Amino acid sequence: MSLAQLPAGRMATICESAATLDKHDAAMLRAMGLRPNATVRVCRPGEPCIIEVLAGGERCRDACRIGMARELADQIVVRVHEENAATERGRA
Questions:
Q1: What average pLDDT is seen over the chain?
Q2: Reported pTM
């Protein structure tokens, strides 16, 4: 699933970036903490897509928010956290 497909509040782990991501964009994302195994939470989907990079998988005061174009967020592959998905299924 791509980062751009996640709804607000959903947490996920970065798996990889698409092969089509150019070197500059990939380096910029890594510098901001968006690298494989990083945990993120979607603050606001859409354009721009605003995410929060979380330390150790939990919210902390050192968390960083990043805004990115939806086109770029579409190229970032994530694994949704199961506990997060179970909570949303329970609400439906």
A1: 82
A2: 0.77
